[in-house]
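Next comes the chain:
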Amino acid sequence: MARTRNPAVRALLIDRAAQLLRERQPVTLRGLVAGTGVSTMAVYTYFDGMDGLWRAVRQEGFTRLAARLADVPVTDDPVGDLAALGSAYLANALANPDLYRVMFDAGFALEDAAAADATLDRLVTAAAAARAAGRFRAEVDPLELATQSWTFGHGLAGLVATGPLPPATLDSGIPVLTALFVAAGDDPRRCAASVAAGWHVTPVL
């Protein structure tokens, strides 16, 4: 008779692995289960071993990011929506710094790469909507602009969530994104208002 898997145990082991990374402790079978009340066999039951665990840890980071982005409403201001997605990205990194450290470690494959790609697709869709609304020039590539936005957000998140800069630095995202979107063709004053409004849809402090 197959043993029923408990999703809570799977989530516990993922969070425990991320915690050990944060604390600079060795991630071993015994270390993972220490104090959790589950046996080392749980790593094999739920992940088929340590490699499977790392794939799950990376995937969980993107799963939580996708959930955070999904909470950002689509409005009639697509430039504001882009800024709101950026602040949601940062909020997710600050809320899950342990998982954020692992998300971009390409040393282990993802369980579902397409699900991770969907997080970028949300930015691409917003950039395309802004272009269609006439906020960006017709020749602007939504994928390129979304990638530039992500690149900036990733750098800022790394420096604050897992690095040396204080949370107050996060508001530097407003002028940087404004400059990026103005360069893409948006009106400076209108852009500044949109970005500032969108940036505060998801509080990051």
